[in-house]
């Protein structure tokens, strides 16, 4: 009889059942060839980002990374598991485009287990509604101090700053410099971000 190898023993579930609620343990069994998010137990399949999306993400990563050199905070980009566990459940894991984390104690092998200090989501046709509504409420509820929604088509950035448990919103255009509130004295030129 042929001996099974380790890979055969770890059979991954290809597609979750959308009628069922899941946990992070379930999420870990899903096919590694696909990217998923899990919000309040509901799975969402993520499509590959466009070239424009990747360019914008790369520019944000470069600007944040350069500013954060020799500072206690770090910037990370997707794929990066952000486990936003509620008080008694572990049914939420998202993969934001970029996160800034200043507390190394929340880090784990494949991401973090608590709210990052800052999240940046770059809109795409398949994620726009989720980023503007479901994730906005999720990030506010779990204490993400600063949440940016980047609209590549309109060349706009909506910043959401947490104050007393509620987000206060500002909007910046491609000609503006947007201040990063969690990083004193740092602002990002959006002309550089949205350059063609």
Short description:
The protein is an alpha+beta fold and 196 residues long. The chain contains 5 helices and 14 strands.
Task: Describe the protein in words.
This protein has 196 residues and is an alpha+beta fold. It has one domain (50-193): tt1808, chain A (Alpha-Beta Complex), CATH 3.90.1570. 23% of the residues lie in helices and 31% in strands. The protein is built from five helices and 14 strands. The strands form four sheets. The protein has a six-stranded mixed β-sheet, with helices on both faces. Strands 5-4-8-7 form a four-stranded mixed β-sheet, with no helix packed on it. A two-stranded antiparallel ribbon has the order 1-2. Residues 1-12 have low confidence and may be disordered.
Category from helices, strands and their pairing: alpha+beta
CATH third-level topology: tt1808, chain A
Strands, count: 14
What oligomerization state is this entry in?
single chain
Indicate the mean pLDDT. 88
So how many helices?
5
Note the beta-strand portion. Answer: 25-35%
Q: Please trace the helix and strand order, writing H or E for each element.
A: HHEEHEEEEEEEHEEEEEH
Shape, principal axes of CA atoms? globular
For the record, what is the CATH homologous superfamily label? tt1808, chain A
Biggest sheet details: 6 strands, mixed
CATH architecture: Alpha-Beta Complex
Query: Ends: how far apart?
Result: 59 Å
Give the CATH class.
Alpha Beta
Low-confidence stretches: 1-12
Number of domains: 1
Biggest sheet: strand arrangement: 3-6-9-10-11-12
